[in-house]
Design goal:
Length: 134
């Protein structure tokens, strides 16, 4: 089965990053995730991410380098997730499609239940932000 190309944004505001809660009626409803979505045919990954952020949050973003890529198989689909460092250029995130949005610190990750595909990403964020004590 071909993996579905999915893009997501890692958006920081100082020490906090943006997470979004999926609507209750969707697959993996009420789980937390990064803003983003599927890449449409003929669309670049960066263009897809900019479009998704406009549609879901009402913000214009600058898409930077890739933070990491993850492949995850759900019962209904396999996703290839590319997470990009992104920055909000204009606008304030709004709940246009999500149940809720939050800015959290890496220390607060454990307080939220994320989509399984995001778990590896969160580990990486935690590793950067919370170096192991010697």
């Amino acid at each position: 089965m071909m993996a579905t190309q999915v893009v997501a944004a890692l958006i920081w505001d100082g020490p906090r990053f943006l997470i979004c809660q999926r609507p209750a009626h969707k697959a993996r409803g009420l789980l937390w995730e990064f803003v983003g979505g599927k890449v449409e045919p003929g669309e670049s990954r960066k263009a897809a991410l900019a479009r998704e952020c406009r549609e879901e949050l009402g913000v214009e973003i600058a898409v930077g380098d890739i933070f990491m890529e993850v492949e995850h198989t759900y019962p209904d689909m396999t996703v290839h997730l590319t997470l990009f460092h992104s920055q909000i250029l204009q606008g304030i995130p709004q709940k246009l499609e999500h149940n809720d949005i939050q800015w959290i610190t890496p220390q607060q990750i454990d307080g939220y239940v994320f989509c399984p595909a995001d778990v590896e990403v969160l580990e990486a964020i935690r590793a950067i932000a919370l170096p192991e004590k010697e």
